[in-house]
Design a protein that fits this description.
This protein is an alpha/beta fold and about 350 residues long. It has two domains: about 1-95 and about 285-325, Rossmann fold (3-Layer(aba) Sandwich), CATH 3.40.50.720; about 95-280, NAD(P)-binding Rossmann-like Domain (Rossmann fold, 3-Layer(aba) Sandwich). It has helices spanning about 10-20, 30-35, 55-60, 80-85, 95-110, 115-120, 150-160, 175-180, 190-195, 215-220, 240-245, 285-300, 320-325, and strands spanning about 1-5, 20-25, 45, 65-70, 85-90, 140-145, 165, 185, 200, 225-230, 250-255, 275-280. The strands form two sheets. The chain has a seven-stranded parallel sheet, sandwiched between helices. The longest helix has 19 residues, at about 95-110.
Length: about 350
């Protein structure tokens, strides 16, 4: 098959693909370059750092399959994918383990002031008493989006001795039972926000979740709590978070692996605050997870059968009635997103 690899994946996976296929690599290329390179490709492989727009896919009349080496699809024009019969394969599981572990590392780092302790000791300050922190054991972890990654994070926290609350988009008895097996108690969005000592975000970025965590939600959080964002930068209203951290009324600190602006050379305003841990969207970036993702990619490609040169004709998008009132439901697996579609006090309502 003719393959365009638009994001960096495990080198050994690229080498294996090249033994059997026509492979072109262009990591995180701009749209115009992607349009030129994808023109004769049958398959496209990408991660989160590149935008696969309708214009890019329209330039590839033979494109039959997109492999998303991870979970989120906010960088892919899913309307175009559905309407033109392009198959999409996601590989969420390997990265989920890595993201969950980094979320836990964020909690530990914030609770025990690890970055401050390291910095002060390097400066010659043995500030033992000033760096007293908090135990995780016995604290409440709130999971906004208790799906694949969120529930795994909750399972780790329960094993650590934390109480775990989680909310999902479509709560049910079956979902509650599945979460309970991982030590996660199903709750509403408002309950999770109000009771969490650590509020961890694991939702996709959609119109419904953009700025889900705004000034009103931050004000409703438990005093002395921490916010962890492992979802997407746009889920949190960054200016509101900055103000809340500066005020210190409710938030004691925050850990963010994802950011409003993830371009090279950009510095987040949050970097000026001492009670924040920032990492450059490396949640899934472990050697182990990337190796496993590479192996999955090779297996998916190997399983492909020869297809006609042209993909199926354009088909209409799914009817909104089939998924509920919003056509956005069609772009997400049911039961994996956050939020209970509720509002409390002045907090922004959302339903998806």
């Amino acid at each position: 098959m003719r393959i365009l690899i638009a994001s960096s994946i495990a080198p050994e996976a690229i080498d294996r693909l090249r033994t059997q296929h026509d492979v072109v690599c262009a990591f995180n290329a701009p749209e115009e370059k992607l349009k030129a390179l994808v023109a004769d490709r049958e398959m496209l492989i990408c991660r989160s750092g590149v935008t696969i727009s309708a214009a890019v896919m329209a330039s590839a009349p033979q494109l039959q399959l997109i492999i998303r080496a991870g979970s989120g699809t906010d960088n892919i024009d899913m309307d175009y994918v559905r309407q033109h019969g392009i198959r999409l394969e996601r590989i969420p599981e390997p990265g989920a383990k890595a993201v969950a572990e980094l979320a836990f590392a964020m909690m530990l780092g914030l609770a025990r002031h690890l970055l401050q302790a390291d910095r002060l000791l390097r400066q010659g300050h043995f500030a033992k008493h000033e760096l007293s922190g908090y135990l995780l054991r016995g604290k409440v972890l709130g999971i906004v989006g208790a799906g694949n990654i969120g529930s795994l994070t909750g399972e780790m926290a329960a094993a650590w001795g934390m109480k775990v609350l989680g909310c999902v988009a479509h709560p049910s008895a079956a979902v509650a039972a599945a979460l309970a097996q991982k030590g996660v108690q199903l709750a509403t969005f408002e309950e999770v926000v109000a009771n969490a000592d650590f509020l961890s975000l694991h939702v996709p970025l959609t119109p419904a979740t953009r700025h889900l965590i705004n000034a009103n939600v931050l004000a409703a959080m438990k005093p002395g709590s921490y916010l962890i964002n492992m979802a997407r930068g746009g889920v949190v209203e960054e200016q509101a978070l900055y103000a809340a951290l500066l005020a210190g009324t409710t938030l004691r600190g925050a850990g963010l692996d994802v950011h409003q602006n993830e371009k090279e050379g950009q510095v987040s305003p949050l970097a000026a605050l001492p009670n924040v841990i920032l990492t450059p969207h490396v949640g899934a970036q472990t050697i182990d997870s990337q190796r496993e993702i590479g192996e999955r990619i090779v297996a998916i490609v190997a399983a492909q059968r020869p297809q006609p040169e042209q993909r199926p004709p354009v088909r209409p998008a799914p009817s909104p009635a089939r998924f509920g009132s919003s056509p956005l439901r069609a772009s997400r697996p049911l039961g994996t997103l956050a939020g209970a579609g509720v509002c409390f006090g002045p907090i922004k309502c959302f339903a998806f």
